């Protein structure tokens, strides 16, 4: 069965009326004020009404609070108590809908779809690199975290190390870090500002997928097996934590990075959909406000702890093994403990 555009529009308007939903900014989702499964208010229940994609079908719905999902129109109508809207549709309800009229809408909101990304030309994997050796990389790091270089064949990336971001075994992005120290890059850029020379970018990253939809090391989270995730800001933090806590083959605990000091709805959804229960926020010690905000966003969905780094100026790759062990053994704080502690420290 294919729904006609009229039938589709009628369903959307009836569902909207029944649930009191509003469209989100992209127009591709209905945000329902109260979840029909858990009753939570605050617009946590979303119904996808955009065109069919590889991962999404119209009328799929998900609650970001209780995690309940519906995959078909029928399940959704049952959930909101409007099976009467199903009556006219007798044939194959699970068949894809054909919604060409909706194509013009390009905005993206609650949309976890990713496109595959090509790594820079001449990328090849490396298992030893002076820059990474200096940052403490060991054999297992290269083994578990693919890292590459392009060499001189690709001048644009010649002085960079490239970290592919992988999701479901597919490259969906990359972060490239120039191998000079930050101070040297700044000095170079200052000198060339007037001479008209080229500027060095410290990072040269992929642009196809927004990084707020990605998590570095996401595949290390095993479906319904990994219970606890440590949330870090960047790739070097993830690798340092994995090395120091020896998480390489640990199927219950994984470190992932959000590419910054905040977490998006899509990233939360990605953790939830793999059955993660506990999140330990491991952002830099000086990011107090960001940690608090992130903790509040995570609290409805996970058990949340905060890894409180004693020396706020240090990153994970600057701490010793015993310091890191100490943080996880003795300094994991609940959200409330963290807030109280930060008030006292002021
Ligand atoms: Zn719910």
UniProtKB/TrEMBL annotation:
Task: Return the InterPro entries for the record.
Answer: DnaG_primase, TOPRIM_DnaG_bac
Give me any GO biological process, just one. Answer: DNA replication, synthesis of primer
* GO CC annotations on file: cytoplasm
Q: So where does this one cross the membrane?
A: none
A single Pfam family it belongs to is Toprim_2
Its name, as the record gives it, is: Toprim domain-containing protein
């Amino acid at each position: 069965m294919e729904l006609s555009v009229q039938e589709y529009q009628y369903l959307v308007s009836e569902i909207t009326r029944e649930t009191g939903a509003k469209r989100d900014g992209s127009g591709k989702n209905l945000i329902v004020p109260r979840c029909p499964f858990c009753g939570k208010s605050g617009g946590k229940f979303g119904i996808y009404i955009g065109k069919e994609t590889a991962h999404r079908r119209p009328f799929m719905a998900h609650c970001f609070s209780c995690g309940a999902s519906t995959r078909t129109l029928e399940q959704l109508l049952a959930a909101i108590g409007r099976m009467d809207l199903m009556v006219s549709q007798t044939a194959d309800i699970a068949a894809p809908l054909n919604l060409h009229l909706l194509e013009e809408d390009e905005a993206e909101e609650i949309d976890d779809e990713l496109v595959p990304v090509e790594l820079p030309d001449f990328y090849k994997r490396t298992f030893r690199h002076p820059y990474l050796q200096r940052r403490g990389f060991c054999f297992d790091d290269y083994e578990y975290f693919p890292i590459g270089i392009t060499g001189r064949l690709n001048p644009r990336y010649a002085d960079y190390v490239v970290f592919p971001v992988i999701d479901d075994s597919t490259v969906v992005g990359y972060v490239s870090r120039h191998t000079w120290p930050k101070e040297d890059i700044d000095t170079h850029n200052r000198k060339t500002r007037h001479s008209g020379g080229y500027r060095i970018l410290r990072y040269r990253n992929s642009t196809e997928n927004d990084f707020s939809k990605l998590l570095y090391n996401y595949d290390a989270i095993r479906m319904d097996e990994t219970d606890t995730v440590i949330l870090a800001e960047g790739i070097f933090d993830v690798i340092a934590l994995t090395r120091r806590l020896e998480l390489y083959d640990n199927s219950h605990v994984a470190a992932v990075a959000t590419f910054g000091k905040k977490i998006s709805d899509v990233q939360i959804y990605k953790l939830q959909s793999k059955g993660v229960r506990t999140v330990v926020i491991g952002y830099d010690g000086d990011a107090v406000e960001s940690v608090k905000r992130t903790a509040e966003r995570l609290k409805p969905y996970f058990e949340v702890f905060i890894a409180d780094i004693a020396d706020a100026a240090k990153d994970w790759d600057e701490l010793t093994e015993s310091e890191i062990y100490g943080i996880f053994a003795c300094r994991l704080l609940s959200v409330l403990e963290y807030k109280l502690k930060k008030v006292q420290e002021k």
